[in-house]
Amino acid sequence: MLYQIVNWIVSTVGQWGYTGIIIMMFLESSCFPFPSEVVMVPAGYLSSPGYVASSSYVAEREMNFWIAVLCGIVGSWLGALFNYYLALLLGRPLLLKFGKYFFISEENFKKGEEFFRKHGEISTFTARLIPVVRQYISLPAGLVKMNMAKFLFYTGLGAGIWTLILAWIGYIAGQQQELIKKYLHTATVDAIAGCAIIIVVYILIMMRKHKKEQKKVII
């Protein structure tokens, strides 16, 4: 059953081509529960020599690795922009109106807004590397009207790293499901650990910056 599902996904990505990657990654990056693994891993496989040499090879369905990664980033951008503008247009009034039913007071909401205004860049970047969180980090960015250039840059940077990792897993693992699972687990753990290190370094830099500013005020 699992083998048939995997074959169907690979076939679908192959049939839809690069447009299919953009559409599926748009869904993954917006509010829809659609994992990026089922898109970029097959895309990586379709760009590998292993696919060309396999019995399932279909002429003209093979992909260029870097174009596939670029399409994954474009799809992630589009999905992130969807969430950004959804929150920008509808989010704040709805949260202020119904937040109390989910234990979100207006004061807590404002604190959250202030935090994201100060640390939106690092939050946007690291969240794109963390499962589940990556789909929703664009919502607070839209709520606080994060600078669009910065939003696109940090979204693209985080999404690009994760998309590249997934495509590379598909490229080297092919259709070996146990190997894919192993690599995905390792990649996820390493990504979370990397984000933790980045956040710790960021906090230390911010603390050092704050101390310098305090010294200037005293002087």
Cα-based radius of gyration, to the nearest Å: 20 Å
Q: Helix content range of the residues, please? A: over 70%
Low-pLDDT runs of 5+ residues are none
Number of strands: 0
- Shape descriptor reads globular
Task: Give the tally of structural domains.
Answer: 1
The whole-number mean of residue pLDDT values reads: 81
Put simply, the count of helices is 9
**H/E order of the elements?**
HHHHHHHHH
* Strand content bin: under 5%
The secondary structure category is: mainly alpha
Taking the alpha carbons of the first and last residues, their distance comes to 71 Å
Question: Sheet with the most strands?
Answer: none
Characteristics of this structure?
single chain; 219 residues; mainly alpha; 80% helix; 0% strand
Question: In terms of topology, how is this protein built?
Answer:
Blueprint: H1 2-29, H2 37-46, H3 49-52, H4 65-98, H5 106-127, H6 133-136, H7 138-143, H8 148-173, H9 177-218
Helix pairs in contact: 1-2, 1-4, 2-4, 2-8, 4-8, 5-8, 8-9
What features would you describe in this structure?
The chain is an all-alpha fold. The chain has one domain (2-218). Helix content is 80%, strand content 0%. It has nine helices and no strands. The termini are far apart.
Structure summarized in a few sentences:
This protein has helices at 2-29, 37-46, 49-52, 65-98, 106-127, 133-136, 138-143, 148-173, 177-218. It is mainly alpha-helical and 219 residues long. Helix 1 (2-29) packs across helix 2 (37-46), helix 1 (2-29) packs across helix 4 and helix 4 (65-98) crosses helix 8 (148-173).
